[in-house]
Amino acid sequence: MVPDIVLATQNAKWIHASFGLRCLRANLGALRERSVLREFEISQRPVDVAEAILADAPRVVGIGVYVWNAPHALALVRTLKQVRPDVRIVLGGPEVSHETELQPVCALADVVVRGEADLTFRSVCAALLAGEPVPHVVDAPLPHFHELASPYDEYTDQDIAHRIVYVERSSVCQFTCEFCLSALDVPVRKSNTETFLLQMERLLARGVRHFKFVDRTFNLGIAAATAILRFFRERWQDGMFLHFELIPDRLPDELRVEIAAFPPGALQFEVGVQTLDDATSERISRHQDVAKMAANLRWLREATGAHVHADLIVGLPGEDTATFASGFDRLWAMGCNEIQVGILKRLRGTPIIRHDQEHGMVYAQEAPYEVLQTAAVPFPAMQQMKRFARYWDLCGNSGNWNATLPHLLAGDSAYGSFAAFAEWLHATTRATSGIALHRLAELLWQWLTGMRGVAAATVGAAMAADYARCARHDWPEFLRPYVQLGPGAGKARMVAAGGIRQARHRTS
Questions:
Q1: What is the pLDDT of residues 261-288, one digit of tens each?
Q2: Given a cut of 60, is residue 79 above it in pLDDT?
Q3: How far apart are CA 479 and CA 488, in angstroms?
Q4: Where are the domains of the chain?
Q5: E-assigned strands of 82-238?
Q6: Is CATH 3.80.30.20 correct for 164-377?
């Protein structure tokens, strides 16, 4: 049957299955069977995406617009309207839910649904298919979980076998950090825990082993969080992997018991630290107990097998390079597996803009609206910090250089030591991407032995250990004198649970 409705979006990568589109299709009611879901990646040309969408001959096309695909959505809608002006275009998503009147993509669309469109999209489609008038902008009433159909049956067998499966037990967040859409006056809503666990049981039966929770604060409700962890622990199978976003200063004993009971690599916690400067935290309405956070992060690292991925944000109002560096050093000392150095983005609708004048906030006008400079961090310094972030991903977060990293960070400040390497690396390569691992190894060797004066035997032993641990066989010539092949050398001891990157952090 030719579908009347195509639900489409461009994801950052193919592996990311769109949770939002699946929620919309699950709640189309009688129109569901007249719809089809089509997903693409931002690497694809909009004209090719348009061709694929129009091959279904739809009457209505619903497009999810986010900060990461906003330019692609604009080009896609322009093409669709040029080629098939009769097709009704309905936009939704966080990017078009705020400052709607300022966006060219919204002007091109027939309808823009602002807010959570799970139920409203159905009524909009019904009206369009019936030839009835629909306002250009429709504000969706806030749905509650008990009103919504489950989206989980919308995951196909191929999704389950090859892609990330997203699940959600609670919506929005109780905190009011001004850089986040949770700062808006939207109440936290939660699904019934028993109902949710029945849905998870069904996904397990279908073969899902990696679950990524999109709840922004998984441990907001301790009883529910504990029940969910216990549910998965009791049904544990090799290869399972659970990802949660965690409030770092809220780990009571009942939650600790469950976390500690999981095997190494089974859990990944994304911990939103964002800043460790008290004045900055107060300025952006972020409230956290840093002492409790530090104790909890150390406990997670020392007493559990959980993978801890902590977030810091560059460019927050009033925070300068020195205070950010101090926060990085403190967080590194807490023993996190990864520190994600993110760049502040001015998401549409967030109240972070109230600081623009006082703190000299200047953002890029194109998505993802990254900060370009602030009164505290001039443009050249901001560029240096962005390079730091990119190179830190390559060297610190990749898990490729666990033994080498302590030599790279040695000195009074881990941030300062790595920042010096980052600037030398940029001056040497003029690249922030596309540096092959083999080439990066050569550059690390040059920096540590030639620029920092670390003994070649020390560096060679560390880098050779990293190569052997990660089961790499393309040994650089300069490392061959330091290769010590023993029983099992050259074979990474990758455990069953978790992803490849996380496993590299666990092996030794």
A1: 999 999 999 998 999 999 999 999 888 8
A2: yes
A3: 19
A4: 5-145, 164-377, 399-508
A5: 88-92, 111-114, 137-139, 165-167, 170-171, 189-190, 210-213
A6: yes
In the numeric block, which tokens belong to residue 471? 């089961």
Question: What mean pLDDT is reported for the chain?
Answer: 92
What type of residue sits at position 109? A
Quickly state the pLDDT bin for 326 (edges 50, 70, 90): very high
- Rounded to a whole number of angstroms, the CA Rg of the chain reads 24
Domains 5-145 and 164-377 share a fold: no
Q: Please write the tens of the pLDDT for every residue from 369-425.
A: 999 999 999 999 999 999 999 999 999 999 999 999 999 999 999 999 999 999 999
Alpha-carbon 409 to chain mean position: 26
Cis peptide before 135, with omega less than 30 degrees from 0?
Answer: no
Report strand pairing: 137-139 vs 111-114. Answer: parallel
Query: Do 491 and 471 contact (CB within 8 A), yes or no?
Result: yes
Element (H, E) at 121: helix 120-129
- Which of 107-121, 182-196, 219-233, 266-280 is predicted with the least confidence, judged by mean pLDDT? 182-196
SS (H, E, C) 348-374: CCCHHHHHCCCCCCEECCCCCCEEEEC
Q: Which residues pair with 111 in a beta bridge?
A: 90
Q: Look-up: residue for tokens 């703190």? A: 359
- As given in the structure block, the two tokens for residue 301 are 């690292």
Element holding 323 (H helix, E strand): helix 321-333
Per-residue pLDDT at 316 exceeds 70: yes
- Residue 37's φ and ψ, nearest 5 degrees, are -105, 130
Dist. CA 90–CA 363, nearest whole Å? 28
* 5-145 under CATH 3.40.50.2300, yes or no: yes
Beta pairing class for 170-171 and 189-190:
antiparallel
Sign of CA dihedral 60, 61, 66, 71: negative
331 pLDDT more than 70: yes
Contact present, 42 and 10 (Cβ < 8 Å): yes
Q: pTM for the complete prediction? A: 0.91
| Number of neighbouring beta carbons within 10 Å of residue 135 | 10
How many residues make up the chain in this entry?
508
d(CA 14, CA 259) in angstroms, rounded, equals 31
Is the pLDDT at 486 greater than 50? The verdict is no
- Residue pair 448/408 in contact by the 8 Å Cβ criterion: yes
Are 35 and 97 spatial neighbours (Cβ–Cβ below 8 Å)?
Answer: no
Q: How far apart are CA 295 and CA 251, in angstroms?
A: 10
